[in-house]
User: Fold these one by one.
Assistant:
Number 1:
Amino acid sequence: MKLDARIPDGPIDTKWERHCFELKLINPANKRKFRVIVVGTGLAGASAAASLAELGYQVDAFCFQDSPRRAHSIAAQGGINAAKNYQGDGDSIYRLFYDTVKGGDFRAREANVYRLAQVSVNIIDQCVAQGVPFAREYGGYLDNRSFGGAQVSRTFYARGQTGQQLLLGAYQALARQVGNKKVRMHRRCEMLDLVLVDGHAKGIITRDLITGEISRHAADAVILATGGYGNAFFLSTNAKGCNVTAAYRAYKKGAAFANPCYTQIHPTCIPVAGDHQSKLTLMSESLRNDGRIWVPKQKGDRRAAGDIPAQDRDYYLERKYPSFGNLAPRDIASRAAKEVCDEGRGVGPRGLGVYLDFAESIQRLGSHVIEERYGNLFEMYNRITGEDPYASPMRIFPAVHYTMGGLWVDYNLMSNLPGLFVLGEANFSDHGANRLGASALMQGLADGYFVVPYTIGHYLAGQRPAAVSTEHAEFARAEEETRQRISTFLSLKGSRTADSFHRELGAVLWDHCGMSRSASGLKEALRRIPALRQEFWENLRVPGSGADLNQSLEKAGRVADFMEFAELLCHDALTREESCGGHFREEYQTSEGEAQRDDANFTHVSAWEFKGLESPPEEHREPLIFENVPLAVRSYK
Amino acid sequence: MRLKLHVWRQRGPADAGQMVSYDMPDVSPDMSFLEMLDVLNERLTLEGEEPIAFDHDCREGICGACGLVINGIAHGPTRGTTTCQLHMRSFKDGDEIWIEPWRARAFPVIKDLVVDRKSFDRVIESGGFISVNTGSAPEANILSVAKDSADQAFEYAACIGCGACVAACKNASAMLFVGAKVSHLASLPQGRVEAGRRARAMVSAMDAEGFGSCTNQFECEAVCPKDISVRAIAKMNREYLRAGLLESES
């Protein structure tokens, strides 16, 4: 396997413009001869499908949900970053670039991040034109707020529902093209395999989730915009349907999987309430603008929050990181919460929680201001916990939220498999080892609206349109494998459900490959996962048939892939013998307990090649070169 | 607490369907409604029965996938709440709960509690957008939008497309859903250009899908998990009529 990142030469601020000029073009009359498959309809997928159709390509878009509007981008709350510098507070493309590289703990590719910062300004323009109702000042101009990991206000937002509003913008752009018959929309249709012809991605195999029909779809290129793999942990802030299947199937067909160990644990989620818990709910990071995080100074202090006087409280983020305080980046805030809970100072019935307290802001600003800023989040908290956050502090705890790792892509967002493009959370490219708040929405839309529409043409220009049909033997083979797998699931007739296996797998990952990791823990996980997988394939029970809507069967397929993927995740975590961003190895920390990077040995991307389930994956390294932002210890003190 | 559930079971679109009763002996008040169904489904699977099919995804009240009629009310007894955000502390020991799918001609049942809502997508495809291609947008702050207009647009744009408004309406009308989109875009200057054409196209598409008419009962507003006001319907009617008048003048 050869990894060529295809980073253009020259100064960083002109790379993208020159690259766009050098990319081959396809004339408008020829574009309609090419067909592109887009899997996933979140911010990245919907924006790509709509933009490609506008350009004249024929598009087939797929989602497993009943409507493209339900993709999980919809749940993003806080906002979207852009280097508009509307606040005149010293922001610039270069500063957004710098903050993102530093926030990613120097494990992202500089050129990609710079381009992201450049196109961020176009995203806001596009979304406003689509009618996205961003928050505005009384003068009618766009409002901003600040977010973790930045000292400027560059986050655009629509109350606590920014992801929803951006996705509806992209969904409506997509719907317009569906109505124009430029996009064929396949709903409740799940991709189960990727088809390669002569090494190029030329199609997919899908299952219609209502009729059970297995179908072949051929195209000139395939785009995966299928999100992250946070649900490997079972409990996460992801939607229940989020899964790794599309990306993992591509990996098994030869696509390199990069940095799977970079998982983001979000510091502000509602704590687990009981064993029945099916998912975790995020409370937007924006709350940290006005909420102060604390725990009691004394271990085992069981007094109610309101009865604990100021001198007995430890505002530990403000104490440890005075310049960023409660707005310390996510990885740092999460680890700090774990640390105080490990010390026995956690709050709530299980001792796994810290307070996020608004009392002071309510006193300073009035509860109406807090309600205007965060009303829907406070309501959501109240509905889930039965507690009133206006009267007593919220309890929060970190939870798996986002995955920075993903399929390896070059500067054109193409994987090492020609014709396979990967966008949004599904790729690895922009966030390094830690993503800053409000940057996921930015990346998804950057990839879909402003990058892939340019770069995919360069690949297609070298291809003969519609060269491959679904009659090709590779399609037949992939379809047969998919059918076999489904009939195996249905024939096992064991005594455990897919959910019970998934919960157990998630617990193994959370314990050994969660907020902190160690060689011994990871080795333990690597012993337990194959054993659990073996039991899965012997003792799984999937009721019903494959010929109609069968949610247990869908789940079984996704869990089967998580079972294999989890091993890759732990393997990568074990190999990366340093701490960086979301990847914290207990053996590699400073005397103050901060993450200790090893730049001499680990300033590279680890891209893994599948070598069969019985053999360990093979590591390929893409060196990371920092020409603009000098490698430095990331300090938020 | 101990509950008794009566759940609509229907094997497929052609099946007549019926209510089936299940005992739930040990329900925690901290569970969400869907987590209770998860527990039941795990039990049914191990007992060799098919679990109950229901739509759900984000489980935080924003994707719009879930939707059950609970004791006759779309999304259940708590106002401004999706089914997934409903928690069992809203019920008490010994309660009996009736659970049914959305029922409307334009939302045919697929299986058990799962219905087909493609009709909503088709209504949006008919005109629920602003026609702007990627790349052709002007600088965002060139256009100033009054904060009140932006806030009002947001209120309507908060619609999650769940279909509760249709399920609650005796006429299975989709006017709150359609009105919310028409009003969202018509409240903003960038959406005014197509406002009339949009209203007419979406109303025609809505009628073609078999949704009924509005008879001002406001049941839709009462069950809307995002508290969208029926003013959206008035605004849509205004846009629709205005478009008709302008057309007859020209």
Number 2:
Amino acid sequence: MTAQTGLQPDLRGADRGLGRARGSERAAGRLFQGLLMGCLAFGVLVLVVLLTDVIRDGLPRFNLDLVRNMPSGRPARAGIQSAMMGTIWVIVTVAVITLPLGVAAAVYLEEYADKTRWYNRAIELNIQNLAAVPSVVYGILGLAFFNRAAGFGGSVLTIALTLSLLVLPIVIISCREAIRAIPTSIRDGSLALGATRLQTVRRQILPNAIPGTATGSILALSRAIGEAAPILIAASGIIFLTRNPTDLLSQATVLPIQIFNYVSRPQEEFRVVAAAGIMVLLLILLLMNATAILIRNKYQRKW
Amino acid sequence: MTSLLAHREPGPSTAELSRSLRKSSPRWGERAVESLLFLAAVLSVLTTIGIVLSLLDGTLAFFREIGVGEFLLGTVWTPLFADGSFGVLPIMSATLLITAIAMVVAAPLGLGAALYLSEYAGTRSRKILKPVLEVLAGIPTVVYGFFAISFVTPSVLRPLLGEGSVGIFNALSAGLVIGVLIIPIIASLSEDALSAVPQAMRDGALALGATRTKVARKVVLPAALSGVIASFVLALSRGIGETMVAVIAAGSIAQLTLDPREPMQTMTAFIAQAASGDQPTGSLGYNTLFAVGALLFLLTLLVNVVSIRLVRRFREVYE
């Protein structure tokens, strides 16, 4: 055990305390602590086993050919290029849609909304509830409205709009937290110097909320990159493409969908391609998370 | 900044102040921006309305052809066949069984991890261990599906239960892996609840001669019970809604059985299968997807409502 710090009392001797705890009780205490530690260790163990399993399976195909080749029915030539390009198209579109909307909604809720009004409370409750809706339900929404009613089909736009609705609550919540961390004195100071509300938002609130918002948004986007189920439903079966998307309305597939496609084939060779694809996906997520942590550590201000 | 404000001169009277702060002229630009921002916030409400409308439309069309009783009580599920039957019980029981297996795994492990983090771990080990849980939570579900089918079934279940005991697709591997997937939800939310219990309560119990085990089990855990239950319920609704692991590891055979070694299709897996089949808009197969989606939506809603009630009932408020 590491040393206790801060105001927490040192409890290491507490079980011996006033000599009340008998030996058997002390042993039971140690057993209990060991058991709890085991629970945590199990999580770590699963993570290690999972990564080892993926790397062991995927390493033979983890090379440049994987990203150079298009998906194929022949395992030796099967790659993930169209899925990589699809993921890039989709994520950029999701970012373009969700960032302005998410920041705008957060600024409204934090800086303008009168919390005593019923409609503002309804919006807040609604955002919390949306975060708990299963992702397949967003897929159904995407299928009904974007794919069929709007006629976008299984395109970049359908996928991006569906994912945008899915991650918008996350972007809003993280941006609100970033805004809330800015002390009221900054606002008061700006207003006292004659700035309007809009000027305060533009020159004080937004610049100071950038690091927190950036971190939260990158995490939200990495959630969008890993999602498969809502896309599977919204794009309705477009899971095998050998062309890269060229515009918003061209058919697209994304990495998790392509991985799913390879996993669900019976031949063992495709499982290797799937594992290699997973390595690429995890690498992208690792990079994004590392960027988020870097931004947080480098730019976050303590007031 | 703050010191400047603190040492200011006594200000003008309230009457003067309200006159000086009166708007000189309506600032239309400011108003326009505020309305735009409001619209962005309203979009989330439109999303909810969109979800309800899209589900309702297809579901009503479905029930014009299929009776509610036949849907809810039927025991055979073959909706995508010509002349199929529409009894939802097989896929509903599969969802509940797999979620139950997941909760059996995740509830004790998640709570145990949370108790360790809040009651035993030092600041330094917590700094290392919490990110591990976050990584576990950030892994895409399709990867967990791959893990279930490429590791859990062949390398864990078959050696433990006997070589011929489980097929490639089985509910057990899906349930176990979904359990792992929801451990971080329970662990991190429960840890928040446990850490929020005032230190004075622990100190008091320790001063009365309780051991640390007793403090954790008899003082901290009961005090944080509402938060712990809330974390369980959130994990439960996440398990019900989980799709990719069920699709990949549990298979696509809808059968009414409680044997976890059998392949079975969950509600979410059916939705995914029906959607990838490219059903024509308005066909019965297409509408079935919406009926199942509506049922899933109601199920998670019910779970959330129950959780809010439970939390209210067990909540203990300190200071």
